Amino acid sequence: METAVKATAEQQTPQDRGGPGHARSAPWHWALVVAGSAAVVATALAANPATGTPTPARGTVKALPAATAPDPAEAELPLECGPFPVKISVSFAADLGDGRPGTVVAAHCAAENGTPPDAVYLLGAGDGGRPVVLATLVSETENLTVSRLGLRSDGVITGHAQGYSSDDVPRFSPDISLDLTWTRRGGGWGRAQTAAPLTLT
Question: N or C: where does the chain have the smaller number of CB atoms within 10 Å of the terminal CB?
Answer without folding.
Answer: N
